[in-house]
Amino acid sequence: MLLSYTLHLQFVVLFITILVCTCSSSIEKICRKEMDNNMRFNITCTCNNNIKDFEVYGEFFYFEDARYVTIRNCKEVTLQTTDINSSELEELHLHHIHTVVFNIFLPSSTDSLKIENVSNLTGLHNHSLLHVQHLRNLVIKNTNVQLIDSHTFSDISVENIYFINTTFKYLNTGSLNFTGMKDSLNNSVFHIERCTFEKLDLNAISVKRIGTFRILESDFKGILKENSFKISSSTTFFRSNTFTCSERKDTCNDIQFDILENFYGFTQHNSQELCKFLQTNYCRSHKTKAMINSLQSCYPKLLKYGVNKSCMPLEPDKGYNIYLNISLMLVCKLVLKIMVF
Fold first, then answer.
1. Which domain holds residue 35?
2. Predicted model pTM
3. Residue-wise pLDDT tens digits, 121-147
4. Closest to 55 (Cα-Cα) out of 84, 86, 32, 79
5. Terminal Cα-to-Cα distance of the chain (whole angstroms)
6. Do 147 and 125 contact (CB within 8 A), yes or no?
7. For a pLDDT cut of 90, what percent of the chain falls above it?
8. How far apart are CA 195 and CA 78, in angstroms?
9. Does residue 35 lie within any of the structural domains?
10. Which parts of the chain are beta strand (E)?
11. Structural domain contains residue 220
């Protein structure tokens, strides 16, 4: 029995040794260390035709003195560590990767996290930023995010957050829970543009002490629950977004009013701001018409939010109509000339 256990233990040790050696060998082939003027290392890892996958398991000491780490151009990147053993790391940048398994503990020194052009991002567990207290920059761009755990970003002060052209498959309760830094309240920005949200739980997006919060040209495919958003921000902009309202046209229903409940709160019960939201955002079933068009028969219910019949659909852009009329006139003249000849 003891012999069997000893042999098993030796096999495990041998396996781990081979794994670490193989991993180290691969990393040394594709990673380059450069020293900056402050005698600190920056590391860039670039996959190639021979090495397409990048894997980090267990405690990994290669990044020990790194200040900036970039991993790029890989088929698959697996970050599966109990800790990145570094007190120097300030920025981790992952880009142009097909699949990223993000299951690491970032060190407390981390100041910037950038993920760009990743086809499939899994992970972002609630322990990933457990040691991190401040993030100056969080960027997720051109990426498909499968899941963000609850409270992944809780208890972290942030300054600049940019989500651009990214799909979020599922946001759990408190997945995007951000608090702005006290010393940069007026300058802090949370910017979402051309993103797709497929499913949001209650309080999935929570923002406080952020100077400017913007959501532009984004698509909310899942039905919003009454408290999917919890926003406390100095300035908010919501323009040209689409929401799942109702399959039936011009129908008052609870789904539409759940959307209103979400946005009525952080407009600070300002009926003019809510009217502006209804005029400049759309229902997915008919994107050419603003939400207010779908609620023309719902004014008795809208009175609860201070919105009355003075909140009308915006007039078509007059400048656009002028150019359209000029174009039509020129076409007509051209057709007449052709007919004469």
1. 26-119+126-132
2. 0.81
3. 998 888 888 889 899 999 999 999 998
4. 79
5. 104
6. no
7. 30
8. 25
9. yes
10. 31-35, 41-46, 53-57, 66-80, 91-103, 112-123, 134-141, 144-145, 157-164, 167-168, 176-180, 189-193, 196-197, 205-216, 219-220, 229-239, 242-243, 282-283, 286-290
11. no
